Amino acid sequence: MPTIQIKVVKKYRRAGFTLIELLVVVAIMALLAVLVVTQVGNARSRAHDVVSKSDLVVLRNAVEAYNVQNSKYPDTFTNNPKSYYWVAEAGFFAIPTQLGGPQNWIPGIVPNYIAELPHDPNSGQANTFLGGPCADIPGYSYYLYESDGRNYKILSHCLPRTSINLNDPFYDPVRGYGSIANTGGFIPWAYQVSTAAVTNAW
Description:
Blueprint: H1 19-70, E1 85-87, E2 97-99, H2 132-136, E3 142-147, E4 152-157, E5 178-179, E6 186-187, E7 190-194
């Protein structure tokens, strides 16, 4: 009786990845990288705005302490009634302003009421998050102070890096609308602390 031989042919798959598999892996890694970078950027922006608000609270406390002892707020109208807002650094675009200097843009409170005046590291830089004039004109991004002695307003102007909720206690209703570049939408562009009489006026 004839012998039947059955040959079993084993197919071995070549080790490694196919081109499609490699492309899928690269695409997933790129997506993860984008997500990580976005989250890190968002966290940095939120941290920046927390510091901005903290600075405003410290400044408010300092000018209120000045008012308690002097029966008026540090005055920026004295001898120069047309220079309303005082700014720390040269280059602020809006007029009228006066260059108070890094430690005198709120006059008379250093060192008795605050050790030193804060400075935002993004001062003088274009703010592409806010868009509109804040992105087009770097000279809009500064801390500002204005007072007639009876009332005051302190601004973090064109510096916010996250969206401002209209119920936020730091929301500035005077600067409540600013164009977002390329979208046609509108968002606020400043944080503020102030006396109630000028919150909706200055």
